[in-house]
Every structure is written in structure tokens, then in C-alpha cells.
Amino acid sequence: MTSAPEKNTPESVPHYRAIRSYVLRTGRLTTGQARAIESLGPRFILPYEPRALDLTQVFGREAPRVLEIGFGMGESTAHIASVLPDHDFICCEVHTPGVGALLMRIAERGLTNVRIVQHDAVEVVDHMLAPGSLDGVHIFFPDPWHKLRHHKRRLVQPAFVAKLVERLKSGGYIHCATDWENYAQQMLEVLTADPHLRNTAEGYAPKPHYRPLTKFENRGLKLGHGVWDLVFRKA
């Protein structure tokens, strides 16, 4: 099948979706993770459905809503949900061990402001989140697809950012972080090019207080590796 050329508009998302930004790996599920999914999943995991969520009903309150895309093993997610208890978090991750790990952290910290959708975040954005429903989006350390021929698989692309912007309220933000300088440069270019976004810094932003240093990130910094944060707001 011949692919249509990419355009910097939301209409290009169908083409963008043809190239996934992740590889669905099979990871070993620990006993604790499996138990957490069985016992806590019914409360904290939202099934994927192609219809807009009623977030007030989901969380049982009115609060700022943040979408997190790709939370890994949930270390940062649980920390941020703890330090921002007045915010609600909709978190997307496709890997089952990560879902189980976050559920364990939710139980350990007694969190009530996190919900998980174990599904492709692009489809969640397309079909489950209404326009103007979000106050923020977090994309921390997405797969950099560092080989040039794989750059088309990177998540932060103009078409997807346009979709995120549509779902942000006025004044809402997109916060990206990466430890790959080339990807940071691409993120900066893509976010700067969106006419509805404004950079909160001159170039890269200082690390916001809510984002913790993970063990992996801290080890990289000690080895001299850089980390770049970008925070843009919707006008």
C-alpha cells in the first residue's frame, strides 16, 4: 500500500498511526505485579473504548487532568501523583509488567488520583479524550529511535502534537523530557512550530520540581550524559 505524504496537520494522523512509536516486548510478569493487576486492576485500569471518557465520573471529582504517555515501571508517575495530589493522572502504557509495577506503587503510596489505560496512547488520544479535557501532557524519555532511518517512529511528531494541543485547555502544557540530544532538538523544533504553543523558556526548560530524578537518569548524569526538558503552554 502506498503511504500518503506527511503533513503538519491533524489530518495526517491516520498516516502517522501506520507507524508505531513502540515495540510491544514480552516481559516477565512478577508474582507481585500479577497479583496487583488481579486485585487492583478493576479499580485503576480503564478498558480501552473508542468513546470519550467522562473524567469527572472516572475520578469522582473536578481537578486538573494530566495525560502521561509511556510511564515505564511507574516510578516517576507515582512520585508525581504523590506530590500533586490535587491533580488527576490518566496514564498510558502498553507493557504489562509496567502496569503491574505502577499498580504496586499505587498501593504502597495509597494513591487515588491515577488511572491506567493499557493501550496505544495515540488511539487513546484519538478516541477517549475530548477536546479541551486536559490541563497537561507528560512525555518522559520516549523511545528515541536513535537510528536516522527510524526517526519516523518517534512519538513527538507534528501531527500528534496537533492532536495533543486540541485536547489541552487554554493555558494547558506539554512537558517532554529526553536524554537524547538529537531527539531534544527535534522536540524543540516540533513544539516551536505549532502555532498554538508557546515555549515557557528560552530553549530548554529547567527541570520542573514535580519530575523526579530516576536512578537511570541520575546514573547518566554522573556519566556526563545530558537530560533536556521542554515545557510549552497552549496560548
UniProtKB/TrEMBL annotation:
InterPro entries: SAM-dependent_MTases_sf (IPR029063), tRNA_(Gua-N-7)_MeTrfase_Trmb (IPR003358), tRNA_methyltr_TrmB_bact (IPR055361). Signal peptide: none annotated. The keyword Methyltransferase applies. Its EC number is 2.1.1.33. GO terms for molecular function: tRNA (guanine(46)-N7)-methyltransferase activity. Belongs to the class I-like SAM-binding methyltransferase superfamily. TrmB family. This is tRNA (guanine-N(7)-)-methyltransferase. It comes from Ramlibacter albus.
